[in-house]
Amino acid sequence: MAAKPEKPVEEELVQKLKELPVKDRFKAVALNSVHKELRRLDEELQKEIRKLQFKYEQQMAPLHERSNDLIQGKGLPKDEELNEAATFFSQEELATKETNNVHEPIADFWLKALKNCPVVREEIQAKDEPALKTLQRVVIRT
């Protein structure tokens, strides 16, 4: 025996399907079954996406912390983080690593970052800049 629909929407659907001509009702019932399976799979997909998102957010958290430490001048770059330095510095500049690589925050980092972001740059007005210059950390929650 088939399970009775528990939700008012499903009850309305059953009533609407019963009103269809018999020849169309067979296809409509089959379509309803297919769509239920699609909804079930979509719910399963969303559950798996949430699990994966959580997994990767956990893996990224220390990297976000490291980024914030570098931005705020709380840490110096590690050698493994500078493995591509030759691409970005001349030999003369690389020779000044000991004197130029200091514990200082990157000045106005978040203001510059936000002004370079196409999503928000149009919203930033001159009156916002003093407040944005004081930002020390931006956290995005999903």
Question: If you had to describe this structure to a student in words, what would you say it looks like?
Answer:
The chain contains seven helices and no strands. It is mainly alpha-helical. The mean pLDDT is 92.
Sum up the structure in keywords:
61% helix, elongated, 7 helices, mainly alpha
Indicate the topology.
Elements: H1 8-19, H2 22-71, H3 85-88, H4 91-94, H5 97-100, H6 109-115, H7 129-133
Secondary structure tally, helices: 7
Helix and strand element order: HHHHHHH
The biggest beta sheet, please?
none
- State the end-to-end distance: 43 Å
Query: Into which percentage range does the β-strand content fall?
Result: under 5%
Number of strands: 0
Computed over alpha carbons, the radius of gyration is 28 Å
Low-confidence stretches: none
Broad structural category: mainly alpha
Mean pLDDT across all residues, rounded?
92
What share of residues is helical?
55-70%
User: What's the overall geometry?
Assistant: elongated
